[in-house]
Specification:
Elements (H helix, E strand, L loop, with lengths): L9 E4 L2 E4 L8 E9 L2 E9 L4 E4 L8 E5 L4 E3 L4 E3 L3 E6 L2 E2 L6 E3 L5 E3 L8 E9 L2 E12 L3 E4 L4 E4 L4 E3 L2 E3 L7 E6 L2 E2 L9 E3 L9 E3 L8 E8 L4 E11 L6 E6 L6 E6 L10 E7 L7 E2 L1 E3 L3 E2 L4 E5 L6 E10 L2 E2 L9 E2 L10 E5 L6 E7 L12 E8 L6 E6 L5 E5 L8 E10 L2 E2 L6 E4 L10 E7 L5 E6 L10 E8 L8 E4 L6 E4 L7 E10 L2 E2 L6 E4 L13 E5 L2 E5 L12 E10 L6 E5 L3 E5 L6 E10 L2 E2 L3 E6 L4 E3 L21 E3 L5
Parallel strand pairs: 6-14, 16-24
Antiparallel strand pairs: 1-2, 3-4, 5-8, 7-12, 9-10, 9-13, 11-12, 13-14, 15-18, 17-22, 19-20, 19-23, 21-22, 23-24, 25-26, 26-31, 27-28, 27-30, 27-32, 29-31, 32-33, 32-34, 35-36, 36-39, 37-38, 37-40, 40-41, 40-42, 43-44, 44-47, 45-46, 45-48, 48-49, 48-50, 51-52, 51-59, 52-55, 53-54, 53-56, 56-57, ...
């Protein structure tokens, strides 16, 4: 370091080196040395002292300087220079000095105010220091000022309405004009907020703003700014948006009782329309549903700040909130109150679904539907069951603890089967007892019937079916549900009997699926919910012999005008078959008609043949006490003339045979009548 730099122009304070009045010879490397008893450390830095004449090559005065008439312009002069230069300005050949319209700042900036056409011309910045001097020139061009020709005006609208804020401007035609809008000083982004804000015209000189479906948050001071590159001008107007009230505040619950509370709140914003009324809402936390709460008086006027909420359930958690409304609608609800629980009270609802019955002999079983949590009204909850025989006057009562209790069984050897009792039930808690339910008749447990049906009769109606009849029994020991029929073959034990239960109180029944020509023993028993009663005396019945297996043979027919004459050989029953008592003919015209059943004791029949019929199907079988035998089926075209069926000697059954134009065939099929 040069010795002259350490003298009067240097100062070291707290490890900091300060050099004043820098000179070119001060350039060089400077080293800081710090040390103590533990050692020494070094750090270095290079100092370069620059010196140069003013240079405008990197930052000349702006060549073309537009300015608005009547406005203000600042022209920057900032050459590169070391040390800092002295700055002078001139217009043309005339030096400029500070006055009411012209200012040259300490850093060399030229400020012109209240610009007029006479200010146009060349402006030169002169810069000079000990190293030299330089200058730079720009041309000032004066343009017409931008002016708001139609300013926005204040508007008063309702929430949801739309409105146009007008803003028109004039400007120098050689320059572009743009409009921007602000709400309370915050720029409006028309692209991001196009749901509610839109430019209302494509004309460059019109910057109207359309506000669509206004919300309360769109109220405020709107500022329209029209600007060119040389100037800008603004105009403002206020928008008032009226709407439903804001949420009330400070909801507080006081004076909590069994079925009521006192609620207070503070008024929220009315949003420029008077509050007409308040609504109180309540919610039980487990339901998560807000419901209107009843108040006294029923209507809470808009100038109120408290209400008595009534009709609440005792011993129940609630949250409350308040909603204000005016002629423009219902506002947002307040924040919920703190959670409160109403006080306990005696139950005020009687249990429902009281019924009973069933169980074992000598018992009275009583059932009911447990009360829900909202009707318990307090802790230590239970039920009081009261009952008495219909023929008595004295009530017996029993306490059944437990919220979910739903049944009480009273056992006493003196209780006879199916005895009617009057029953009532009420709830209780530690605050008291509630009302009794309506009187209900409940019967004690049933016992098995002790009377058997009488006058049991049975008759065969076919080889596999019998019909049984009996006299009814009076309801004994309970409600008669029906009858149980037991039947078994002669020679078998009753324990192996088949059983059929009638689904009603009918005193007759048909039993099917029996074996032909077989004797059966039959008994009848009454039954109820408790079981089956004693059997009736048994009666015997023998099913009929089986029906003839062979179908009628040698069937022949003659078509004559409007009738068919058909005949056949008689069917002779075998020894193990029931005698033939008649013949059945199932007669069908064409394939889609409804068949008609004919019966005859003869071996011939005359059947009608309508003129429009084209085809006849006849099923023919023998019948007797054992039922219907195997049928023969005959298909007769109307134009078949005279035909007959013959026996195929190759088979014991009648099969297909063709006689006269192959017009007829026979099929063996079953049909049930």
């Amino acid at each position: 370091m040069p010795e002259e730099a350490i003298s009067d122009r240097t100062e070291v304070t707290n490890g900091q080196l300060r050099i004043t009045n820098l000179q070119l010879q001060d350039s060089g490397m400077y080293q800081c040395v710090a040390g103590n008893k533990h050692g020494t450390i070094y750090t270095s830095v290079e100092l370069t002292v620059q010196a140069m004449a003013p240079d405008f090559r990197l930052s000349p005065v702006k060549p073309m300087i537009p300015a608005a008439r009547g406005g203000e312009i600042s022209i920057l002069c900032n050459p590169r220079s070391a040390p800092s230069p002295v700055i002078l300005w001139s217009k043309g050949t005339e030096l400029l000095y500070n006055n009411s319209r012209v200012t040259v700042t300490a850093n060399g900036m030229l400020i012109l105010k209240n610009i007029s056409r006479s200010d146009e011309g060349n402006y030169t910045c002169f810069a000079e220091n000990i190293m030299g001097k330089s200058n730079s020139t720009g041309i000032l061009s004066v343009r017409e000022a931008t002016r708001i020709t139609l300013a926005p005006s204040g508007s008063d609208i309702n929430q949801g309405d739309s409105v146009i804020l007008q803003c028109h401007a004039s400007h120098d035609p050689t320059m572009d004009l743009t409009f921007t809008w602000e709400l309370d000083g915050v720029p409006i982004n028309l692209e991001k907020e196009q749901e509610h804000y839109q430019r209302d015209s494509a004309d460059e000189s019109i910057g109207d703003l359309r506000i669509i479906h206004a919300k309360l948050g769109h109220a405020g001071k709107y500022t329209c700014t029209a600007q060119t590159v040389v100037d800008r001008t603004s105009a403002s107007a206020s928008l008032l948006v009226r709407g439903p009230p804001g949420p009330p505040g400070g909801v507080v619950v006081r004076d909590v009782k069994e079925t009521s509370i006192q609620l207070t709140w503070s008024r929220g914003f009315d949003n420029h329309n008077p509050i007409s009324r308040y609504m109180v809402q309540a919610m039980e936390p487990e339901t998560e549903i807000w419901k209107p709460a009843k108040t006294d008086p029923l209507t809470v006027e808009g100038n109120a700040e408290s209400a008595l909420v009534v009709g609440l359930l005792p011993w129940t958690d609630y949250l409350f909130r308040v909603v204000a409304s005016n002629i423009l609608g219902v506002g947002e609800p307040s924040a919920p109150s703190s959670l409160v629980k109403t006080k306990e009270a005696a139950p005020n609802v009687a249990p429902s679904g009281v019924n009973g019955g069933g169980g074992t002999p000598n018992e009275l079983t009583i059932n009911w539907t447990p009360l829900g949590r909202q009707y318990q009204n307090g802790d230590a909850f239970g039920y009081i069951v009261a009952f008495k025989r219909k023929t008595e006057d004295t009530w017996q009562t029993f306490r059944v603890p437990g919220v979910q209790s739903h049944q009480f069984v009273y056992r006493n050897e003196t209780i006879t089967a199916y005895t009617p009792f009057d029953v009532m039930i009420k709830a209780f808690n530690r605050k008291g007892e509630g009302p009794y339910s309506l009187k209900t008749t409940v019967y004690s447990a049933e016992d098995e019937p002790n009377i058997s049906p009488s006058k049991v009769k049975a008759k065969a109606i076919s080889s596999s079916d019998i019909e049984v009849e009996w006299n009814s029994v009076s309801p004994v020991n309970g409600v008669l549900l029906g009858y149980e029929i037991r039947y078994w073959k002669a020679g078998d034990k009753e324990a192996a009997a088949d059983r059929v239960r009638s689904p009603s109180l009918d005193t007759s029944a048909k039993i099917s699926g029996l074996k032909p020509n077989t004797m059966y023993h039959v008994t009848i028993r009454a039954y109820n919910r408790a079981g089956t009663g004693p059997p009736s005396p048994s009666t015997n019945v023998t099913s009929s012999k089986a029906p003839p297996k062979r179908p009628p043979r040698n069937i022949s027919w003659t078509l004559s005008g409007s009738s068919i004459n058909i005949k056949w050989d008689p069917v002779i029953a075998m020894k193990n078959e029931s005698p033939v008592t008649a013949y059945k003919l199932l007669y069908r015209l064409d394939s889609q008609s409804t068949p008609t059943l004919y019966a005859t004791s003869k071996t011939r029949a005359e059947l009608p043949l309508p003129e429009m019929a084209s085809h006849v199907t006849i099923q023919l079988c023998a019948t007797g006490n054992g039922g219907d035998g195997e049928p023969a089926e005959v298909h007769i075209p109307k134009d078949s003339g005279t035909s007959m069926m013959v026996e195929n000697s190759a088979s014991p059954f009648l099969t297909q045979a063709h006689v006269i134009n192959s017009a007829v065939w026979l099929l063996l099929k079953c049909f049930v009548i």
